[in-house]
Amino acid sequence: MSRIPGADKAPLFQLLQYMKPFRGKVRLATLFSVLNKLFDLAPPILIGAAVDIVVQGEESLIASLGIKDPFTQLLWLAGITVVVWVFESVFQYLFEVYWRDLAQFTQDSLRKDTYRNMQQQELAYFEDRSSGDLIAILNDDINQLERFLDHGANDLIQVFITVTVIGSIFMFSAPEIGWMALVPMPFIIWGSVWFQKKLAPRYSLVRNKAGELSSQLVNNLGGMATIKSFGTQEYENERIGRLSDNYKKANQRVIRLSSAFVPLIRMLILSGFIGILIFAGFKTLEGGMEVGLYSVLIFVTQRLLWPLTRLGETFDLYQRAMASTKRVMSLLKTTEHLPDGDQPLPADKVEGEYQFEDVDFEYRTGGPVLKKLNLEIKSGQTVGIVGATGAGKSSLIKLLMRFYDVTGGRILLDGRDLREYKLNDLVSAAGLVSQDVFLFHGTVTENIRYGSFDASREEIERAAKLAEAHDFIMGLPDGYKTVVGERGQKLSGGQRQRISLARAILKDPPILILDEATSAVDNETEAAIQRSLFKIAKDRTTVIIAHRLSTVRNADNIFVLEDGELAESGTHNELVDRERLYHQLWMVQSGEVKV
């Protein structure tokens, strides 16, 4: 469940709102950062006390506490120093552990929530987005947030504490000159805000360029066989080179601006340091200030210098993190998912009867795909959907699975509109074998068992045998334990399709949908699969989309689509006898008519 109240607010506000469940850890991490910095600022005061003891002896500040002997004063000071350093080290350990734990918890939770929300989006969303850009958000952008929480948050807190404590020391111990160290502060704050405004759009551009580069890399890795077959390696080298160069130049523009921050801050702090050095020095020489206090002021001014000069690096981390937060939160608040129905659909109650009533459908881009389509699929029937390329066959399957909603009319399943059913129940009711077979990197067993994770070895082998896959699997180097490679690249197209078919068979759904499921197998294997389908299709509704008409020859009913409309329907023999579109397609495929 994503947590993004105030999603229209600034990225930092959105991040803090998201981190509310971790506020206990945030408070402790902040407390440890504050305590560490307080103890870290103590050494300059201890040095001033040591100088005071050496110069003043029995008249020192510590002597006023009742310890007159200078040697004893030094021993007490040494003991206090040990305690201060121990506590400083303890709190440094604690704030590092807590901030890093917080970074891990946040990035882990954010990645899971973002991925979970992304999976809920409808398929149309992924058609408009680059997979490489989505990967960059889920991986690199979330890692940017982790890096900021690891170091940047603590640095910002400690800079604030440093300025507050040192400013207080100046104003309470030597108000007449302490203001000199604080004069640069408004300019530093103004400069920080100015740099932040200038850097923000530049970092957004950097993240966008990173997404473009990642997208092309993912695209090229997936299409490596095509690149090699066309000999376009040099072309792709140049394309990746251009994108990488754009990313580099975007980063360089940021670096040139952000690198100017520290030198400018250093010059501003220098003015305050020089003022303390000269005017406090004159006052000490004239006897108006103790040497120990002068030492403290010089040392704490130096302590103010280093955290503020690191502020540039911290702002760099901050701006990168905020640019990434904007992209992550944009993905997290995306709501392009189909509305879920409230009607349950138990798998054992599904009859599998479909009615298409005046169904219109079109994608976001392009014209109508299905137009006023009316057809009926009887419960328990095996039906074929055929037609020329672009007739709307695969789109019809996507509507049956409710990957998309119709743009007009309605589709009924067992007398009820598909949109009324719970999406998860619809998925459970139907098993899909797509022409675009996807296998995961893993073993043959893991791919067949996918979605039916409790299936036994015997059930897996039975499904493989029905899909005519068992024999070739046993011929693989490790049988069912053979790793198929990413997207099943170690297998042939026909082997991948048969494993995909076995996966659907193992699911044992009341409705089986085959989208060109035998397009990549030879005629002999297709004939064997058809024999198996005769057994598989018994007592279930089976919808077969086929380019090869031989695949649906024995179907109970065949629907012929043309230009998104139902041209004709009937059995194979009936359609051939009518001598219309199906007859023409059959004559061409059977070789009786040459194209």
Automatic annotation (TrEMBL):
Q: Which GO terms describe its molecular function?
A: ABC-type oligopeptide transporter activity; ATP binding; ATP hydrolysis activity
Query: Which UniProt keywords are present, listed alphabetically?
Result: ATP-binding, Membrane, Nucleotide-binding, Transmembrane, Transmembrane helix, Transport
Q: Report domain ABC transporter positions.
A: 354-588
PROSITE patterns cross-referenced by the UniProt entry: ABC_TM1F (PS50929), ABC_TRANSPORTER_1 (PS00211), ABC_TRANSPORTER_2 (PS50893)
SUPFAM superfamilies associated with the record: ABC transporter transmembrane region, P-loop containing nucleoside triphosphate hydrolases
Where does the chain cross the membrane? Answer: 74-95, 153-171, 177-195, 257-279
Q: Which residues form the ABC transmembrane type-1 domain?
A: 28-320
The membrane-topology field of this record reads:
Multi-pass membrane protein
> Does the UniProt entry include the keyword Glycoprotein?
no
Q: Which Pfam families match?
A: ABC_membrane, ABC_tran
Q: What is its subcellular localisation?
A: Cell membrane
Q: Does ATP-binding show up as a keyword for this record?
A: yes
> Single GO cellular component annotation?
plasma membrane
- Name the predominant localization: membrane
| InterPro entries from the UniProt entry | AAA+_ATPase, ABC1_TM_dom, ABC1_TM_sf, ABC_transporter-like_ATP-bd, ABC_transporter-like_CS, P-loop_NTPase, Type_1_exporter
Give the protein name, as stated in the record: ATP-binding cassette, subfamily B
